[in-house]
Amino acid sequence: MPEALLPPIHLSPADRALLLALLARHLPGVAVRVFGSRVAGWPASRGVKPHSDLDLAVAGQPADLALASLRADLEDSDLPWRVEVCVLDELPASLQGLIATHGVVLNP
User: Fold this and answer.
1) 104, β-bridge pairs
2) Which of 43, 57, 81, 94 has most Cβ atoms within 10 angstroms of its Cβ?
3) Are 106 and 34 in contact (CB under 8 A)?
4) DSSP string, 45-56
5) CA torsion through residues 9, 15, 21, 26, sign
6) Phi/psi of residue 36, each to 5°?
7) How would residue 48 be classed by pLDDT, with cut points 50, 70 and 90?
């Protein structure tokens, strides 16, 4: 789906750029989807708050070391909220379906 047709992700351009840089460093070429309250129109969301966390679902089976390094850099970053990083295949099937339908790919 063209980016113009995707629902917006509630991130500032600077926060998005930082996330993309960290993903490129730790998980190059791996698709990552944003899900949850920071995605406009997410089912059952009560809306995004300034300190709402950011939920990311990583495709495939990334190396444990890469995920640990990404999580550490996210925690040490200047992002103003917590980032939850999940492996898509390890989530319940119902949540995987929601992410496939309503999640937004963050990186190309």
Assistant:
1) 34
2) 57
3) yes
4) -----TT--EEE
5) negative
6) 95, -160
7) confident
